[in-house]
Every structure is written in C-alpha cells, then in structure tokens.
Amino acid sequence: MPAEELIWQDPVPQVDYSLTEQEINDLKANILATGLSVAELVATAWDSARTFRGSDYRGGANGARIRLAPQKDWQGNEPARLQKVLAALASVQAGFNKSVSMADLIVLGGNAAVEQAAKDAGVNITVPFAPGRGDATQEQTDVESFEVLEPLHDAYRNWQKKDYVVQPEEMMLDRTQLMGLTAHEMTALVGGMRVLGTNYDNTQHGVFTDNVGVLSNDFFVNLTDMAYSWKPVGTNLYNIVERSTNKVKWTATRVDLVFGSNSILRSYAEVYAQDDAKEKFVKDFVNAWIKVMNADRFDLA
After folding, report:
1. What is the phi/psi pair of residue 233, to 5°?
2. What is the C-alpha to C-alpha distance for residues 68 and 263, in angstroms, rounded to an integer?
3. Cα Rg, the chain, nearest whole Å
C-alpha cells in the first residue's frame, strides 16, 4: 500500500482525545442549551450520516464533510438551517475545556435531541455514543468525487429534489439498502423522524401528531386509525380526511402511504401502533439511529 495519503481515499484525520461519561453529558447539556430545536439537531446529524453507502463504503458522518464544499451547499442539506446549527455547535466547541471534533459534536447533538424527545414521550433512554470522529479539511475533500454522493431524495425527511420516473417509495428502498438498514429499521426511523419534525423545509406531510418534537408512536397510531380515509390530491400527495366530519386532518405522501398499504410494512406499523409498544418503538428507533450514525466507524469493533 502507498505510504502517502491519497485524496481519493477520502482521508479523515485521527483524533487524540477521549471523553468521559461526565464530559459527554456536559457536552449534551451545552448543546441543548444553545436553543436549537430537536428537529434541527436531529436533521443535521441525519444529513451528515445519511450519505454512507454500503456499496463502496464512502460517505457517513466521520470527517464532518457536511460543513465543507460540496455538501454544505447541497439543496437536500438545507444550507441556511445547516449553517445555523453548525454555528451553534462551533460555539459549544469553542467553550469546552477540551478539543472536540465537529464530527463528534454533530452526532452528539442528534443523540442529545433524541434523548430529550424520548424523555418528553415518557421514556428515559441513553443513546450510546462512541467519540473518535475526525474533522476532514477542504484540502482532503475531492469536491468532484463527492458530488456523486449528493442525495436526490430522502424519504426519511419526506423530500425529493424533483419528480422522477422512479416512485418515491422505490427510491426509499434504494437509500435504505445503501445504508444497510432492514425494513424493520426503516419503519422505525421513518415513524420517528416524522414526529420529530425533521421533514425538509418543515413540511407537514406525514407529521401525524399534535406533539411535534416528541418521540411518540403517533405516526403509526394515526396511520392505522380507520377513523381516517386517504384522498389523493396529486401524484405524490394525499389528504387524510376524518370520516365523521369529512375535514382534512393531515397531509401525506406516497412514502407515508406505503407503511399502511404494503402488507409487510403494515405489520410493523401495527405493532408500533399498539398502546403497549411506546417504549419498544423508542428502543427500536434508537438502535436504528445508532446504526446509521456509526455506519462509517470502521474503527469500532
């Protein structure tokens, strides 16, 4: 193997610090104290990690390349919101008594937000965190080669760049298998991301809850509730109508509909919709979340 570091290898500098449990808790408290919302923190961590591709092991949160060109300007990363979050995290980074990478802070911010949202839902859970991500530089990032990683759709945030011949739910499956997720993990993540309010540009499609920002199972409860009927109003949009009043309660996309119409996904949704499945749903969401956040941590056992 060549001794020198080559840019096509997507190099990431190694870090020389460790964090105690108390330091991790302090950092999470500092991040939440910035005033950033649960949705902002979760969406930024997700956008940083969702680029991982199991096909060639490129992408992922390690390196924090979401703060560099070309990722910082990708439409799907919502540049204005991204810069707001990065600036707040930079203030936490500057004020901490130890040098911590932005890559770790981005993921830790998402973890802290998930924990807070779960707590608001009545479930106390700690999202495992493995520090050790490095911050790549612009010089270590080949802009042209990274452009092929730009997401053109993200069903988890109910967004697609434009209309394609391929259906949104089919593109969701493609992204899911690239990230190495199962159908079960996909279901938990989509349901959780919806109620956390992480939709692109804050759209309300599929947000089947009155308590946005709380990690509840409301998405599945209302998805499977026969009190509502789905009325198509376009090629990729539905009105969720109350049968008793004929009033529109929510809106949704084909991606949301598939979790009620596909027999396999429907079976997962019905499990999560049960009254006694609230804690199970949170645990499953957290497990799938960790899998995405650590997908490119090849240094972990």
Report:
1. -130, 15
2. 42
3. 19
